[in-house]
Amino acid sequence: MATRAIQKKPILVIRPLRQGDIFLQRLQDASLPFCHIPVMQIEPVDMTEPEYAQAIEVISQLDRWDHAIFISANAAEIGLALIAKHWPVLPAGLQFYAVGQQTAELFADYGYPVRCPKQQPNTEGLLSEIPPLQHLNGQSVVIFCGGEGRQTLGAELTARGGSVRYCELYRRIIDPSKVAQARAGMQTASCLVAHSGELLRALGDCVDRQIPVVVPSARIAQQAQQLGYSNIEVAENALPQSMFNAIKSLI
After folding, report:
1. Residues 6+ apart with CB under 8 A from 212
2. What are 30-78's pLDDT values in tens digits?
3. Are the CB atoms for 210 and 4 separated by under 8 Å?
4. pTM value surpassing 0.90
5. Which domains does the chain possess?
6. For the chain, how big is the Rg over CA atoms in Å?
């Protein structure tokens, strides 16, 4: 647990830009000073790239899949729009899943039914809480995602008998200039908020061992320790309110 209290110094947030960021809005509503330096950019695959053609191929044959999993809000924002364009009526029998609540909320705009884990809104929760994913017995699963992410989900679903394919819809691009800004900003920040291990790794080794760092899981806390952080506050999960509560506990 982090031990240094937040004072009037800004909270350093390094997550990518997103429209209507509820987490940043929570900080603003609470009149907590923050500095948002997005060290990562989200770039949808370009229509000229082979990954785009592969995604269209998967979506045009969506009726061949039993389960479709959306790994993030970015995957849902991009993928659902493409699905709605190609499928005015969803294929019968196809089941949608979202890894977290924020991702699941995007399905409401299309009127699509979706399941997501309630107790643990992450990959581990999806694997442990969703009954249809426990024993797949040859059923097909497509995972809509960004490039070079964790392979845990696909590996476990394959072990459960599933025929799994990843469908890349976007890439996560680290911006070296933003990384430099964030590392400099850590010198004057009250705490660092990192929503993923990839964001922490992008910053490199810890600049200030004593700066509190707020992370969404014990797994990412372990990565923070390996990078040299010693004051770590673990939120209940990555949802905006949970991350906000973790910050409030430092005040």
Report:
1. 2, 3, 4, 6, 190, 191, 192, 231, 232, 233, 250
2. 999 999 999 999 999 999 999 999 999 999 999 999 999 999 999 999 9
3. yes
4. no
5. 11-39+175-248 (3.40.50.10090), 44-172 (3.40.50.10090)
6. 19
Q: CA 195, 196, 201 angle in degrees (round to 5)?
A: 125
**Beta bridge partners of residue 234, listed in sequence order:** 215
Task: Quote the pLDDT of residue 7.
Answer: 58
Alpha-carbon span 224 to 220, nearest angstrom: 6
201's tokens: 């790794």
Contact (CB, 8 A) for 193 and 12: yes
> Do residues 204 and 182 touch, judged by C-beta distance below 8 A?
no
Q: With a cut of 80, say whether residue 97 has pLDDT above it.
A: yes
CA dist., res. 179 & res. 198, Å (int): 12
Report the C-alpha gap between 200 and 196 in whole angstroms.
7
- Whether residue 237 contacts residue 217, with contact meaning beta carbons closer than 8 Å, is answered with yes
Contacts of 156 (CB under 8 A, 6+ apart): 127
Which residue from 34, 2, 16, 18 is spatially nearest to 175, judged by alpha carbons? Answer: 16
For 30-51, letters b (16+ CB in 10 Å) and e give: eebebbbbbbbebebbeeeeeb
Residue-wise pLDDT tens digits, 103-130: 999 999 999 999 999 988 889 999 999 9
Residue with tokens 């110094």: 9
